[in-house]
Every structure is written in C-alpha cells, then in structure tokens.
Design goal:
Radius of gyration: 19 Å
Number of helices: 10
Strand order of the largest sheet: 3-2-1-4-5
Order of helices and strands: HHHHHHHEEEEHHEH
Largest sheet: 5 strands, mixed
Structural class: alpha+beta
Helix content: 40-55%
Number of strands: 5
Shape: globular
CATH superfamily of the largest domain: dinb family like domain
C-alpha cells in the first residue's frame, strides 16, 4: 500500500458541501441522520468543531487536557465522544446561516494548514483505528478526508440528495478505510503466507489482499490468483461497514464469502472510525 495525497480534494469537497447546504429548506436541517441522535444541523456543527479543533491543536499548538488520564483506546473514544457531544449541544443555539458562514470562514484556513504539512512527517495524532500511535501526516490527512466525506454523505442521505459516490470521491475513502484491516486481523491466527482478498465492486471499487507474515498481517494493493479466503461486497456496503453504518448481521446479507470462513469473517468487524 502506497501513501496517498488527498489534501488537494478538500476544497472541492467543501464546495460540494456548501452548495448542498445553501440549497436546503429550513425543515431539512432538523432531519435525523445515520448518526444516532444527531440531526443534519448537528452534523454540520460537528464538522465545524473538527475544523476549529484541528486548527487550534495543530496549527496553533494549543492543548485540550482530558479530565483524567487516557489509559486505553476506550478512554480515548469516551473523551472524543464527550468533546463532540458538548460542542453539538452548545451549537444548537446557532442558526443554520451562522453555521454556514462560520464554515465558509474556517474551512479555507484548514485547507491551507493541511497543505503546509510535510506528508511524511509524523502527525500530532496517530490514526488510532489503524492501531497506530504514530502516523505520517498523509495518513492523518486521509483520515480527515474520510470523516468529511462520510459526514457529508450522511447529510445527503438524510435530505435525499445524490451521494458523492463516483470514483473521484469514494475510491480515496475506501483506500483509506481498508488500511484498518491489518489491525482488525492482528489476533486472527493463520499460517505464514495465508491470504485474504477483499473485492469491492462498483465504479469506486478495487482489490486488496491481506498477507500473513511472521510479524503479522500486511495489506497489499491488488489481488492474488488463489487466496485462501475471498470477501466480495459492493462499494455502498463497504463504506457503511467500515464506518459503523451497518451492523455485522446487516452487512453479512450483502457480502459473499468464499474459501476459509475463519479467515474471511473478521472483515465484518473492521472499523475505520473511532468507536
């Protein structure tokens, strides 16, 4: 798997979001979304929060001290959930117009900041859902892209707008999401050189292969001729599976497993979001 440089997609993704938001009817802002207990307005507020937070923590080098030491991944998730909830509740006092104006002001600053980073330098925060304490900036920026695409997609589904599902937008999301697989498989036993192939169908799809080595599982781009297990799913099922938009049981109905079931089934538990 090679590094991917996604910072150039941020301005156009932001333009797509603002065009969508400016066209919403007042009642659309209150529509429920796939994010539990969050409306369209809440998701927009969350996107604004993540923008402010990234600029404050990264560009401006401020600190947000947790109320107690973060001794585990679960502690980190709980702390982030608390931060998210506090902001969203407070932002319900703001009008949609105010939220959009703040987004227009803040997002270009975020884009300039991300562009200023050396892609190979170590990011301030590792991509925890991939099991990394230290990650290069390009991976952290890729994670940021997937979050912004995902939340926009959730808004689009909530208001009945066409999704950003073309290869231009969705393939980079999937290419980042699948990098959660080696961490997901870290405790799955297999003989060295065992292989699990993931096939995502559709315009934005692709092929990836997990290979077992002495040190653990590695992810490679592309396919192999005779994998021990093959997992096939369409692109819509894939992004929802990796982002907790489907339960394992729901996803199982739309996924085809071939070969060694013990090697293929763990894909159902893969997550590329903090949860």
């Amino acid at each position: 798997m090679r590094p991917v440089q996604l910072v150039g997609l941020f301005p156009d993704l932001h333009h797509e979001l603002m065009t969508l938001l400016r066209g919403l009817a007042p009642q659309d802002w209150n529509r429920p979304t796939a994010c539990a207990r969050w409306s369209v307005q809440d998701i927009v507020a969350h996107l604004l929060d993540t923008c402010f937070r990234r600029l404050s923590l990264g560009r401006d080098q401020t600190e947000i001290a947790p109320p107690r030491p973060l001794g585990s991944y679960g502690d980190l998730v709980a702390f982030l959930n608390q931060l998210n909830a506090e902001w969203v509740i407070a932002a319900r006092r703001l009008s949609p117009r105010m939220l959009m104006d703040l987004m227009e002001w803040a997002e270009p600053q975020l884009h300039r900041y991300l562009e200023s980073l050396d892609p190979e330098e170590t990011a301030r925060f590792g991509v925890a859902w991939a099991g990394e304490e230290n990650s290069p900036n390009w991976f952290d920026i890729g994670r940021e892209y997937t979050e912004r695409w995902l939340h926009q997609q959730q808004i689009r589904e909530a208001v009945g707008a066409p999704g950003l599902s073309s290869r231009q937008w969705l393939f980079p999301v999937l290419d980042i999401f699948v990098r959660a697989l080696p961490f997901r498989y870290r405790n799955v036993p297999a003989d060295p050189e065992a292989t699990v192939q993931l096939e995502i169908t559709g315009e934005a799809g692709g092929s990836w292969t997990l290979v077992r080595t002495v040190a653990g599982w590695n992810l490679l781009a592309g396919s192999v001729s005779h994998p021990m297990a093959r997992v096939t799913l369409d692109q819509d099922t894939a992004w929802k599976l990796f982002s907790k938009g489907l339960s394992s049981d729901q996803a199982r109905r739309d996924i085809r497993f071939e070969g060694d079931a013990g090697l293929g089934q763990p894909v159902l538990g893969a997550l590329a979001v903090m949860a």
